[in-house]
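Quarterly update, task 2.4: adenine-bound model.
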Amino acid sequence: MNFHVLTLFPDMILQGVNTSITGRAIKNGVVSVSAVNIRDYAGNKHMKVDDYPYGGGAGLVMQAAPVCAAYDALAESLGKRPRVVYMTPQGYTFNQKMAQDFAKEEELVILCGHYEGIDERALERIVTDYVSIGDYVLTGGELPAMVVIDAVSRLVPGVLHNSESAETESFENGLLEYPQYTRPEVFEGKRVPEVLLSGHHANVEKWRLEKSIERTKKYRPDLYQAYCERNGIGI
Ligand code: ADE
């Protein structure tokens, strides 16, 4: 799968994705990440890509022309016009289902805004998906873009080496993940729960489900309610 990030800070993206599991996936050729510098499409000698908002107000707005030109050039080189995800607090909140949907694309463009956002006319022309990573405002869309690249990449076949781990984690069954333990059996006087040492697979699964439900109920009552509704459990 190929990600193409339209940004004013290409180095931030490339440095961010080049380590850990995404870095390995890139080196193995399973995933590629290219960063297009929107400033290269400024079309003026000062390389200016932003201006004051019509109607007044603080900050600067990224202009439509460089953003559209950057996308058009990319689309031209790819021979198609891929889906464009715009990272913005004014979008649908990113979740695992969206990650699964994006993972089906061969090419995915991610557009990062800065300052007070991007001229609406550029968005209307090229954006297919408006995505927020949560209810807080960041200085730009680069960190959110990296979040999306990370979450989507790990669903691309061949990225995770242990294929099981993409399936059994939080959210795949609508519940938060159960606690995990590794050696030693006793740490600072605290023992690993006995059932995990028992070798009794069914009991281990039962314990994990109980813990998942307990955590979900405490930290994510919204997910817990949906889980109960799906499974016909009365609260
Ligand atoms: N840009 C700034 N804040 C953001 C957020 N919360 N999600 C996505 N893009 C953003």
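Highlight for this quarter: The chain has a mean pLDDT of 96.
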